[in-house]
Predict the 3D structure of the following.
Amino acid sequence: LSSGINAEYGGSPFLVNMYLLVGLVVIFLLYHVIDNTQKWLYARKYRHIPGPPPVSFLLGHGPILAKAKRNNAFLEQFVTWVEEYGETFKFCIKTRPVIFTVNPDALKQIFSDVGNWTKVDHLPNR
């Protein structure tokens, strides 16, 4: 590939490979900027819902939940959050917001209107 480009443009193989590498890096960075912007805009819709502050921008509450799972305190972590933030709160798995509720009226609405909920593309086997 680079020999054909070399002959056509008269550049050295090093420069041609550097241009290709820089181009790939720029495409990679643009993809991640666009992807993270879309995730941020999606998560922004839920910022009015209370919840614990995330440990990390990229991991969300993953480290807290992993530690709770290792200590066999996974459910206790959610009980603590319910006591602190109320019946309905938000937490994040990586950059994806998750709404958690123990409100009986909200759960009744959710489970009675199953047909009205749209399929979420990032959840497999659903």
Observations:
- The mean pLDDT is 81.
- The helical segments are 2-9, 13-44, 62-70, 74-85, 104-112.
- The CA atoms of residues 15 and 72 lie 56 Å apart.
